[in-house]
């Protein structure tokens, strides 16, 4: 055990430890050598494994995602960096029409073991084309496993699980959780084992127990929910905080059990509000806990606008600790639904 | 691509052949000084709140910042030949193109500061600048400029309008599929498109040798039958000569043209870049080719300016930048409610 700050080092260490044991892993992407994929997810690897296994690609997303499909089909396990998730458009065809479907379309002949690592999120003034999370788009397409770590411990264990998975897994690392010095850090320093371990997909984590309401979120928003929960506790409101950890596969059982316990649910998401994670989770919760809900499920997410540049505008659209706190208080104070 | 320095007589011949008069060259000098000072002033303000600890979210200018110090000659050499109705589509490193296209420096600065008075009311910021009046736009996504400029060129051709569209991009972007896809379509449909590849040697941190199968874009373009020019991007006269021919060709309805301008950025890919991928010696080597003093010494060689003239052009540019940045700093931030407006018209 040692203390680790942030998910970037945890992800890089996971890749490193698997690469040391396995020849099938190669790393592809823009600026994956000197810059460690900019947000640190591949830092230190090229010094250790050389430029033949850690490859700076030209700026050609369609090509290097297509190459990942081709390499995976013949037995490699490519780790591909999509520098910002916002750049997915430049290579998405190879991802959603091929990487996500080839196993199914081939009647199970071709496994597609690819680990994609991408940086998500706003809150530091990078505007519309560099601040999105977009995991809802990937979760919507059948065939991707969608991993959104909120802690360094999870980041390492989930990445090792991804590297041992026979399917395409996309790891969404939030920039404000990387622990890199040039960005704000909203996570916590944690104890992380030096040895290899896995964290299973499809198991939500209970981050805080409480009986008055359930807050469900992923990534950075887990930390904001926890901070809001501390303030709610000072008001005598006990909030339960659940971190879904993986959107696909989704641990609906844990969400439903908590919803049944508290009867009030607030879903917090940094993705766009409509047709995304909040809607899907609300559906799953009502499906399993309808009779136990005291009031309709609420959600807080980016209100269906792009992420604007100017600070007051950006603050107005990304869910904040204040905003979560207010919404949670309103939820607890809301009258029971009509029967 | 460095070319031998011309003698006084040869220089005289070159500028005459290029149709460059004294006023045009003095104006180019002033524009390049304006850009240089603008970029350096933005850098200065950018680090407010970011020292000693560099935090991208802190200070009056947040987020990433890509500056074009060193690349002024490319923007000015090309854009000084354009009309307001001609379209420019730029990149994540857009300030020099914007200023050269005539975008108001105050509104540009205000946008970079996220102010209500900015070009885009603070919504876009430094990588997402739009000016309808000047027909200028840009994108933070690499490779996006080629097809968008081709689209404008397509519209000009359809409407029989004698305008051109210019796509600026880096050599890194020329690896993107949109580059060759656009060249193919532009030749096929004879679009009035001028592609300007600013080869500054590095795609982010990735040097050319690691990302390009061959070092020159003009060779790729020739494969699509696009007339192409390889120029010294640190020499505004060389850029201007090629741009004049390329723009004329496109404006006359002959189809697209490409200019490959070899240049260098003196600052990092973004502010805060530790620049592990290159040496200080290399940067210093390129200082000898700084396009601004080079033009200054040529103006003197031609007898078109003395030190006093150059000094006064530089101070004029500095004053304009200081006014623009003061305007930006004094302008109000937008109302948070503005965030929810404008998704649809």
Protein model, in words:
The complex is a heterodimer of chains A (339) and B (345). Chain A has two domains: 2-192, Rossmann fold; 205-333, 3-Layer(aba) Sandwich (Rossmann fold). Chain A contains twelve helices and 14 strands. Chain A has helices at 7-21, 45-49, 61-73, 92-99, 102-105, 135-140, 152-163, 220-234, 252-262, 277-289, 311-317, 321-333, and strands spanning 2-5, 25-29, 54-56, 77-84, 115-120, 145-147, 169-174, 189-192, 205-208, 213-217, 239-243, 246-248, 265-272, 298-302. Chain A has a seven-stranded mixed β-sheet with strand order 3-2-4-5-7-6-12, sandwiched between helices. In chain A, strands 9-11-10-13-14 form a five-stranded mixed β-sheet, with helices on both faces. A two-stranded antiparallel sheet of chain A has the order 1-8. In chain A, strand 13, helix 10 and strand 14 (298-302) form a beta-alpha-beta unit. The termini of chain A are far apart. The model of chain A has no long low-confidence stretch (mean pLDDT 96). With 345 residues, chain B is of the alpha/beta class. Chain B has a single domain, classed as Rossmann fold, CATH 3.40.50. Chain B has 13 helices and nine strands. Chain B has helices at residues 8-17, 22-46, 72-79, 95-100, 105-112, 145-159, 177-188, 208-211, 217-222, 236-251, 280-287, 291-301, 307-330; strands at 87-90, 130-131, 136-138, 165-170, 193-199, 202-203, 206-207, 228-232, 257-262. In chain B, strands 2-3-1-4-5-9-8 form a seven-stranded mixed β-sheet, sandwiched between helices. In chain B, strand 6 and strand 7 form a beta hairpin. In chain B, helix 6 (145-159) packs parallel to helix 7. The longest helix of chain B is centred in the N-terminal third of the chain and has 25 residues, at 22-46. The radius of gyration of chain B is 20 Å and the shape is globular. The mean pLDDT of chain B is 96. At the A-B interface, helix 11 of A face loops of B.
